[in-house]
Amino acid sequence: MLKNLSREIKHFQEQPHDFRILTLTNLIYALVLPVIDIFVAAYVMRNSNDPTKVVIYQLTIYTGIPLTFLLNGFLLSRFNIKTLYSAGMMLSGVSMLVMMSLKTLDLWGIASAGLIMGMSFGFYWANRDYLALAITNDKNRNYYYGLETFFYTIIAVVIPIAIGWFIEVYGDKRTVNGAYRIVTGVVFMVTVAASIVCFQGKFKNPTDKKFLYFKFHPYWKKLLGLATLKGLAQGYLVTAPAMLIMLLLGKEGALGTAQSVGAIVAAVLMYIIGRMARPEHRLVIFAGGLVFFFVASLFNGIMYNATGVIVFMMFLLLAKPLLDLAYFPIQFSVIDILSKKEKRNEFAYILNHEAGLYAGRFVGAGTFIFLAYYFSTEVALRYAIMIIALVQLLSVVVARVIIREGKEIIKSLQEETIQSEH
C-alpha cells in the first residue's frame, strides 16, 4: 500500500508547477465549500423556518454569478488573474459575515448576502475554470478532476461532521448563532490561506482581450443545452439536502453525519476512475452519475423520511462527483476545439457557458418555488427533484452527440492543417 501511495505522490510531483499549485489552492479552499453549500442554507432555515427564503437566497447567488463572470472578463485586462481568483475566495467569507450580522433575516438582507456570495462564486469559478483549462490537456483532465474530487469527497466527510457537531455542542452550551459566527471566522482565515498559496503560481491572463461574443458555432449550442440540463439540478441540489435534513432529521450534527455516509468509498472510487479513465470513458461515467442521481431522487420521493434522506445523500455522494468528473473534461474539450476553429479567447466560451448554467439553475429553483407556493413545501421537496432527475437523463443523449461531433470537427481541422501545409 505504501508503495502504491508513493507512486501516486510521485505522479503528482511530475505534473507541471501550475497544475500542482492550482490543485493545492483548490484543496485548501475546498475546506470551506461544505460550509458555504450546506451550513449557510441551514442557518437561513434555522432562523427563518422558511424553505422559500433558502431558495430565494440561492437565486440571488445564481444571479450574482453570471454578472460577475461578465465583470471578470473586463477586469482581466486590468488585474492579474491571481488577484481576481483570490478575491473570489475571500468574498465568500465576507458574504457569511454579512449574513451573520443581520438581526432579522428579511428578504433584502438575505438577497444582499446572496448577491455577495454570487460574486464570490463568480470570481472563483470564472478564473478557476480558465486556469484549469489552461494548465491541463485532454489527456490529463480526467486525472486532474479525479484528484480534486478525491480530496473534495474526503473533506465532505470530515468538515460536515466536525462543524455539525461543533454547532450542536456549542449551541447547547451557549448560542447556536454564536457557533455559526465562530465558523464564519475560521472560513475567512482559510480563504486567506488559499489566496496565499494561489499567489505561488505562475498563472497568466488570457492573451486575447476580446471575450464578449453573441454568435457561436452550432456545435457550441449543444454544449449550452447540456449546461442548462446540468443547471437544473444545481438550482435545487445546493440547498435541498440542508432543507431535507433540517426538516426530517432536525439538527446540524445529523446534517454533518448524513453528509459523510459513504463518502470515503466514493472518494477512493473517484480517484481510481480519474487516474485510470481515458477520454473515451467519459460518456459511461457521465451516464453512471445521472443514474445514481435519478435513483437518489426516487428514494427521497418514495420514502420521504429520515432513512430516505440518508439513502438520498449516499447516492448523491456518488452522483455529483461522477457527473463533474465527466462533465468538465467534455466542456473543456469543446472549448479547446472551438477556440482553435473560431480563433477566440477561451474565456469567451467560459463566460457564455455560464449563461446556459444560469438558465437551468433558474428553472430548477423556480420549479421548487412553484410547487412550494401552489401546493406545499413537502410536495416541492419530495417531487421537484424527481422531475429534475428524470429530465436530466436527456443529458446522456446530448453528451453522446457532443462527443461524436467533436471527433468529426477535430478530423476536419486536421485535414485543413495538412492541406495548408501542402
UniProtKB/TrEMBL annotation:
InterPro entries: MFS (IPR011701), MFS_trans_sf (IPR036259), Sugar_transport-like (IPR052528)
Domain of life per record: Bacteria
Record-annotated membrane-spanning stretches: 21-44, 56-76, 83-102, 108-126, 147-167, 179-203, 223-248, 254-274, 283-303, 309-334, 355-375, 381-403
tRNA-binding keyword on record: no
Keywords: Membrane, Transmembrane, Transmembrane helix
The keyword Magnesium is annotated on this UniProt entry: no
Any Pfam family: MFS_1
Name assigned to this protein: MFS transporter
Phylogenetic classification of the source organism: Bacteria, Pseudomonadati, Bacteroidota, Chitinophagia, Chitinophagales
